[in-house]
Amino acid sequence: MFRFVMKRLLMLIPVLIGVSLIVFTLMQLTPGDPAQIMLGPQASQEDIENMREQMGLNEPIYVQYFKFLFGIVTLDFGRSIQDGQAVITKIFEHLPATLKLTFAAMVVAIAIGVPVGIISATRQYSFFDHTSTIGALVGFSMPNYWLSLMLIIIFAVNLNWLPVSGYGGMVFLILPAIALGTQTAAVIMRMTRSSMLEVLRSDYIRTARAKGLTERAVIYVHALKNALIPIITVVGLQVGVLLEGAILTEAVFSWPGIGRFMVDAIRAKDFPVVQGSVLFIAFLFVMVNLLVDVLYAYIDPRIKAQYK
Hints:
Keywords: Cell membrane, Ion transport, Membrane, Nickel, Nickel transport, Transmembrane, Transmembrane helix, Transport
Strand content: under 5%
CATH superfamily of the largest domain: MetI-like
Domain ABC transmembrane type-1: 95-296
Low-confidence stretches: none
CATH class of the largest domain: Mainly Alpha
Transmembrane segments: 9-29, 101-122, 134-157, 169-188, 227-253, 273-299
Protein name: Nickel import system permease protein NikB
Number of strands: 0
Radius of gyration: 24 Å
Mean pLDDT: 82
Oligomer: single chain
Distance between the termini: 9 Å
InterPro entries: BPD_transp_1_N, MetI-like, MetI-like_sf, Opp2B
């Protein structure tokens, strides 16, 4: 298992380098001068040039990139243009809120998607199956920012059951988690249904039924475990979708996570904060993919044997 994990870690290095190159290039193409933004509109051209010199913006692009890459390795993403604080410090300040929201949204998605997918597969073409398929299509088609607004109007404004926005206890987490997790629940539900249908048609499932096992044992002991790999794949990929969707969801619900932090930084043209936040989210995404690969090897030893 150690060799398997180390090989997967080595494969992540070029991915992270590619992400850093894309982020750096996009920030270079973004209109605006960081030095002028930091000093304000009243700054003289001489002061702006001195600030550009201090920030290293007058150096060749490749030199700036290698300094940027070295900063990533040492967890030095620079300092915020707005207040001069270290970007990594500000990211870690907002990280717990984002992780809390992402985890809650994934719990909502799995709690809805997996059971509904299993029931749909075991009752194929039934009324429940058709209803869940339509529901999954609707859930997948709804943008999370629109769903966020609808949930606020219905449950916070009209019914007054839940707070409109804010950060605090569980009551503040319900609406953002549902808004963020609904689309992922639809994806997980469809994948669970498809994977379970394929497994339920297998010979060993017919053998298990012929041996006299109960239908519950056949489904949850034999079929579900063998159907888990595609489901885990979707769950791992959807973590990146949730981190992406959290940007708008946090902005709508005034949730103090990295997403809202990035939106504020984009509005203020705080380039170091945007770069650092995007790279950190990308790092979280690739680490989740690594965890998914490890789970593959745990569930199916044949995958682990390929790396021996």
